[in-house]
Amino acid sequence: MPTYKDEAVILRTHKLGEADRIVTMLSRYNGQIRAVAKGVRRTGSKFGARLEPFMVVEAQFYEGRSLDVVNQVESIGAYGREIIADYRSYTAATAMVETAEKLTGEDSSPQQYLLLVGALRSLANADHDASLILDSYLLRALSIAGWAPNFVDCAHCGEPGPHQAFVMQLGGVVCRECRPAGAAVIDERTGELLGALLSGDWPVADASPESIRAAASGIVSAYSQWHIERGLKSLQHVERK
Q1: What pTM did the predictor assign?
Q2: The CATH number fitting domain 3-78, selected from 3.40.50.10490, 2.40.50.140, 2.40.30.10, 3.30.1490.20
Q3: pLDDT score at 86
């Protein structure tokens, strides 16, 4: 039976039979993998704890007809415990893995894998506010998927900004001439924060006041829901300050 190895983030699991689990993961080089982990629900399982959501592992798989089989697992990043211990981090991480699952498929996506690993590590280490980490992750993940938002120049005609009208269908802010009726309006500070989250300018993001973060989160949430098919169910459970 052919085997292969890859790094992977555990996205979700569900029970199979009395002792097994089906594990859905995002791998570095093989895209999404759904594999059976046999016996991991038994007390004496050697690697059951490593195959929980938000964990990063190096695994060996047997290739199967419909589902591959997990053969060996080594931990690379044990982020689950720290994330689950904090409810805000847990809800943010849940939204992240749902996003990763919906934006990726069987094709290789190293950029999406590395982005998710970095975001989960940042949550586990409490490097920044959990809400900021989530919003930054969502904007970057959508950008990698081909939906990069524009928060400076007009997304329709290219008129240099900054501009204050945001149109999801056009992928960013628009000038007065291109602004349609009913467009959302964002103030300059919210636009600056959105740009900082997209580019990873953490000094600017960390210094932002709560009211600006809330406004930016609303834009990020709406933009994500617009582009991701069937939306993100977990976003409604994300705890914001």
Answers
A1: 0.94
A2: 2.40.50.140
A3: 95
